[in-house]
Amino acid sequence: MAKAAHGSFAEAGADLELVGIQKRFPGFTAIEHLDLTIPAGSFFALLGPSGCGKTTTLRLVAGLEDPTEGKILLGGTDVTALKPHKRPVNTVFQSYALFPHMTILENVAFGLRRRAIGDPVGKAHEALQLVELDHVADRKPAQLSGGQQQRVALARAVVNRPALLLLDEPLGALDLKLRRQMQFELKQIQQEVGLTFLHVTHDQEEAMTMADTVAVMNKGRIEQMGAPEELYELPKTVFVANFLGQSNLFTVDVDGGTDQVIHTVSPSGKISLPRRRSERDSGTITVGVRPEKLRLHQSAPAFDAAVNVIGPGRITDVSFIGVSTQYAVEVPGAGTVQVFAQNVEAGPAAKLGDEVWLSWFIEHTFGLADDHLETGAITADFSTQAIATQAGLAE
Ligand SMILES: Nc1ncnc2c1ncn2[C@@H]1O[C@H](COP(=O)(O)OP(=O)(O)OP(=O)(O)O)[C@@H](O)[C@H]1O
Ligand SMILES: [Mg+2]
Predict the structure, then answer these.
(1) Neighbour order of strands in the sheet with 213-218
(2) Which of 25, 46, 229, 260 would you call most buried, defined as having the most Cβ atoms within 10 angstroms of its Cβ?
(3) Whose CA is nearest to atom 28 of ligand 1?
(4) Class of domain 2-230 (CATH, top level)
């Protein structure tokens, strides 16, 4: 193929495989054990809180760090021992460094010139049009805003048509509106050019809107991976249930069931869930439901075998968000339960201090894999401190 003549310049994306990757820094294990396959041409997001090992993972793929254990394959070829510039990979870093003395155009054309690719200026203009900055092609980086510089960094990476593009929080410096717009454009770019994108972010909305597949990372491990809808509708751990959107979690005791359904009891009422939606089926387990699945009732709802009911509780907070109203309901034995109600009627459905019952379809309940937690109300620990306890693992 003629393409091969361009060395690392690839026309299509490549599979990325991380096999048994571990990364230890002196006194700290940043990545425990990572197995990950990202199919060619996919838009893959690695989502996790600060310090969970996202940048470290990208640096390993880019060749800027060596794994302590494991190997990295690109398009089936082991690249673990390859120097960074030998890998068909481009990275847009969290802190993008443009060459200050070069014009924007030259910054973008630089990589093409270095590899003696034809028509660097034309291709650079094209890439700048993609990020809507062609009109500032003659300026120097210092004459652009932070957000504009970030878009230049994107253009500079995309212009190389790498087999794999690594994006480390590439939209972090942009304001919300531009961020949304760039999310959309990045996705368009990815679909147009068919490259493999590995996008790292701690913004769950960004990960869900852009990626085909999201891997939720926690303390150097992948907790759960799947399509955004799948992860959202069926989280498997407390961490995923709380990091990706919000969840109401209840500690309950399994009390029989059928082939299809698990019945449980708790101080706040009986909660049932589909067996296939539960990671555990005996003992004390943690179950959950998303706040928008809940309905508020001013009186105890009539029995319905398809529905879970808890209550009564009392509304302790009402926040009008616009598209929805968010209620906090204090339910004895269950703690604070969040309810998001769409504003389809004029005026609030319930008010502060009201006594209410809560119901939701059994079908919307999920059962988590975690060992049960003692308290009724469960909050996940996203702090970096918790991660630091890992330090003990690295000899
Ligand atoms: N060179 C290093 N030496 C020691 N520890 C390091 C080194 N580089 C990273 N770490 C630690 O490894 C952990 C993972 O870091 P990493 O930069 O991958 O996090 P991240 O997920 O990208 O976080 P953020 O969202 O804040 O960018 C952190 O606790 C960090 O302090
Ligand atoms: Mg980082």
Answers:
(1) 89-92, 164-168, 196-201, 43-47, 213-218, 221-226
(2) 46
(3) 51
(4) alpha beta
Which tokens go with 118? 């034809």
Which residues, by Cβ under 5 Å, contact ligand 2, an ion? 54-55
Query: Is 235-379 a CATH 3.40.190.10 domain?
Result: no
pLDDT of residue 9 exceeding 90: no
**366/272 Cα distance (integer angstroms):** 10
Type of residue found at 231: L
CB-neighbour burial class of residue 385 (10 A; exposed 0-12, middle 13-18, buried 19+)? exposed
Please check the confidence at residue 180 and state whether its pLDDT lies above 50.
Answer: yes
CB neighbours of 98 closer than 8 A, spacing ≥ 6? 104, 107, 141, 149, 152, 153, 156
User: In which order are the strands placed within the sheet that holds 28-38?
Assistant: 28-38, 16-25, 69-74, 77-78
Nearest alpha carbon, ligand 1 atom 17: 55
- Tally of CA atoms within 13 A in the half-sphere of 338 that contains its CB: 19
Query: Among the atoms of ligand 1, which is closest to the Cα of residue 57?
Result: 18
Highest mean pLDDT: which of 154-158, 181-185, 197-201, 341-345? 197-201
Q: Indicate the pTM of the whole model.
A: 0.82
The residue to mutate among 23, 28, 29, 393, having the most atoms of ligand 1 within 8 angstroms of its beta carbon, is 28
Contact 264, 252 (CB under 8 A): yes
Protein residues with CB under 6 Å of any ligand 1 atom: 25, 28, 30, 48, 50-56, 94, 202, 387
Q: Where are the domains of the chain?
A: 2-230, 235-379
Phi, psi angles (nearest 5°) of residue 142: -65, -20
Residue 305 CA, chain-centre distance (Å), reads: 35
Q: Strand, helix or coil at 283?
A: coil
- Among 379, 375, 377, 366, CA closest to 281: 366
347 pLDDT band, cuts 50/70/90, is low
